[in-house]
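call fold target=NHL repeat-containing protein
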Amino acid sequence: MKWAPRSTNGTLVAGIGNGTAGNGTNQLSCPLGIYVDQSMALYIADAFNGRIQKWLSGASTGTTVGGANGQLRFPTDVSVDNYGTIYALSGGGLYRFYPGSTSGTIIISSYTESFGFKFDSVGNVYIADYVSNVISKYTVNSTRCGTSRASTPVASSKVASMAVPNVQGILEAVLGNARLRSLDLATAH
């Protein structure tokens, strides 16, 4: 649903709107993470269908742009860079899908239950690991992300989502804790 500021009525932008889950091109099943690009195309981590769906603005159906071959297992978040490369967080790691390909490459692995990831302004990626209570920072190069992981938790517990407003800080949303917390990256190691 899309909600205008101060509106009490939303507009359906993806799915069929009657609460019925499914795997058709006009259906979703447990949509979790979303990303909206500059052209207002909506990318959806369709968790139970194991795919990333792209819905153009005003479209009545979506197109599978990641995970068409069963590669993704319960994707929870999605992002797209300025070059159209799609990144999806899915059971076990972060996948990269180049434009035009529905088959991705895993660039970070070994996460058990991660619900969110974000890139900062210089290309570092932060992944919230829900089970380990850790937000890890990776430096991205052309083929894989660095493999060093923070040795101590910078998150309090059960991080479900986060924002990276700049390279100095992170905002975390803690599942079941009814709060947002700001972390200073200069002091959180």
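return ok
The chain has no helices and 16 strands. Residues 1-84+95-109 form a domain with the Thrombin, subunit H fold (CATH 2.40.10.500).
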